[in-house]
Amino acid sequence: MPRTATPDPAPRRAPVGAARPPVRPVTALVRPVTALVRPVTALVRAAHAAPAAAVTVFATAYAAGPADAGPGRSALVGSAVLAGQLSVGWSNDWIDAARDRAVGRTDKPVVRGDVTPAALRTAALLAVAACAGLSLTLGIRAALLHGVLVAAAWAYNARLKSTAWSALPYAVAFGGLPSVATLGAGPGAGAAPWWVTAGGALLGVGAHLANVLPDLEDDAATGVRGLPHRLGRRWTAFGAAAVLLAAVLVVVLGSPGAPGPPGVAALGGAGALAGSAVVVALRRPTSRWPFTAAMLVAGLAVVLLVTTG
Q1: Cα angle, residue 244 at apex, residues 287 and 223 outer, rounded to 5°
Q2: What is the pLDDT of residues 160-179, one digit of tens each?
Q3: How far apart are CA 92 and CA 83, in angstroms?
């Protein structure tokens, strides 16, 4: 007799409570991407991205405008300046890591553990090497001057910020930056006009005074006693406003021709911003508005420099 096919047994159901194959959650898929993005974001923040970008844009615009460097060389000026700014920002957070931890500066990526001081040191050294190479493409005179400016900024981070000479690196770096753009424009180019250099130096000093205002107590607690700490909050606030106004005044009066409506408007705007910075600095000591106002005043001066320099 032919055999009858045996039907397949019914599929067994898993007993209640039995473990099922794990399902990978979305977080497990996102985690590798986050692991890559987090250190990059930390490096951007540690580079003091906003001021670095502002300085780079100014140098590039000045090279393309008053210096008439052309698109290619203007891009080289911007690249060299950006590399220098990155090195300065990263070296600042690397050198200040222990001090920032001591006062609980949780706005710093290195304090939150998003990046290590060793990583910042490596990034700063690589950036300063790139800065040297890029600066050489602008010619030996521009490269030497830019090297002096970046060295001044590193000297501030390493030591001068704790001395009465803390404003000097800012004056040197901001005052000399326009000449990096003009010297890098091509063979035979000269330095920037004296009033551009003077205006830039005053902007640098004003930015330094305004930037330190929110951190006076934290700095003093860790042994930092630069010029603003010796002046005190009140005189530093008034000093920052006066120096920034002087910077705009030098640019307005130094540019060729009589001051026009843009110059008068810039003076009025700078006066209003400087006044508000003083009031906020005295009433709200931890506010960042004085530095923001200083950057806006600097922006007014930069627009004038680029359009009339």
Answers
A1: 50
A2: 999 999 999 999 999 999 99
A3: 14
Tokens encoding 93:
């957070």
Name the maximum alpha-carbon separation found in the chain: 120
212 with 236: CB under 8 angstroms?
Answer: yes
Q: How far apart, in Å, are the Cα atoms of 177 and each of 13, 58, 61, 148? A: 76, 9, 12, 10
Angstrom CA distances, 294 to 31, 149, 202, 298, 301, stand at: 40, 21, 11, 6, 11
Query: Using alpha carbons only, what angle is made at residue 266 by residues 265 and 267, rounded to the nearest 5 degrees?
Result: 90
**Ranges of residues in the chain whose predicted pLDDT is under 70:** 1-36, 257-258, 308-309
Do the beta carbons of residue 133 and residue 80 sit within 8 Å? no
Measured CA to CA in angstroms, residue 241 lies from 50, 58, 130, 203, 234 at distances of 21, 21, 36, 10, 11
Q: H or E stretch including 77?
A: helix 70-95
Question: Running DSSP on this structure, what letter comes out for residue 143?
Answer: H
Helix, strand, or coil here: 226? Answer: coil
**The tokens 């551009």 sit on which residue?**
196
Q: What is the pTM of this model?
A: 0.83
Where residue 104 falls (left for φ over 0; alpha for ψ -120 to 50; beta otherwise) is: left
Count CB atoms within 10 A of the CB of residue 101. Answer: 15
pLDDT tens digits, one per residue of 219-270: 888 889 999 999 998 898 888 888 988 998 898 888 876 677 777 888 888 8
Token pair belonging to 287: 């506010």
